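Note to self: keep these together.
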Amino acid sequence: MKGGILLRILFDKFKEVLMSVLPITLIVVLLHFTLSPLETDVFIRFLIASVFVIIGLTILLFGIEVGITPIGQTIGAKMAKTNKLWVVAVAGLFLGFIISVAEPDLQILANRISEVTNGVVSNISIVLVVSIGIGLMVMIGLLRILFNISTAVVILIAYSVIFVLSLFASPEFIGMAFDASGATTGAVTVPFLLALAAGVSALKKNGKSSEEDSFGLVGIASAGAIIGVLFMYLFTQPGQLTGSLPTTDASAGIFKPFADQVVPILKESLISIAPVTIIFLILNFFFFKLKSKSIIKILKGMLYVLLGLWIFLVGVNAGFMDVGSELGREISLMDNQIWIYLVSFGLGLVVILAEPAVYVLTHQIEDVTNGHVPRKMVLIALSLGVGIAVLLSTIRIMVPGMELWHIILPGFAIAVALAFVTPKLFVGMAFDSGGVASGPMSATIILAFSQGIAFRDPLNVANPVADAFGTIALIALTPIIAIEILGILFKIKSRKVGVPNEQ
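Structure:
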């Protein structure tokens, strides 16, 4: 019976991922046969990579549910039970750092930054500063739950610090910083942090307060990534960066790129998963004392995470990134530039459907509001929001003189202002949704697509490195505003029909 349940969960994950990845795949196929034909080997490589991504994400999500989520819930509950603030603080700092290092989306972005800047900004330095920032903000986020501090207040303070640091940073680092915010809250980090917050908040006596505090930790943590990269600039200040986009190697054949990625990606995956597993085993030996069956189940889940992460990253590195870059570059050089804007908006519309965690979020919102905010309405709002985000990113790159902060600054100002009039439950959901929307698909094909546009003709672009980053930041911004608006609409509707709201 238990085996049947696991198989059903695995099959459900497969259907969810299949319906998520197919829209992106179909758009690339359509573009290949119409506006931007790809080299045959590159196109076939992309189709194979799509299969890798579907299989890898299915296994990864299954492993997260069986392995990472129980670990997060157990650790969160045990931390809260100690009633010692220093235990929560130290554990939050340490766990935030470790889980950020394990995030595949961050690994992808860090490698891309290193490639685009020709190694001036190394992937290791990005991973370290982002993970330190995440660890600090996870610590603050957990203490916020224990001290009953409003999520909106913490967000306001965090983004005030970000605004001040941004005044001293270069355009290149601002884009990298905000992209890191979205990329670091991906397939591994989001479920772990949600489970960690649920474990801590579940022990609070006030049920309504506990429900509200289950959300918000992801959004708070993502601010730490921005702060970390901006602080990095203060201590390095490399000046204006010059770089290039790696070219698509059509002569590499179909299977060689996959073979070249197998061993390096396996090492990266092991390095990502090993710390979380080792920490769990140590804590279980000294504190948790779980039964053998539970331990074996969790360890099997971590093996699934390792296998899924490995397959997913091989597919991404061997097929997805090259195609995204090539499409962005070729379409942006067309005489009729309306196509680049239409394709950008279309990719944004469907990329949100390709983020598996979105399904979890939309179901949660529908359940919490007892159907007053339908799941389809949430999906439509998020889809339109991300479509607009990718479109704005393309406009920013194509229009001379337009910079990321021209959009990000007023956007986050609106998000923070709305946080003080949105029901508390929706504030946490809103800032968490930014991390949910900017998942593995955004960190791969959409990021590569935007970078292809930025490097379409570097000699005629003022600062292609600065333009190459910022898309993930915008994808992480628009869902926040979308969910906050839905929360306000829910509050208005609740008052009309006499349903208690969460304010």
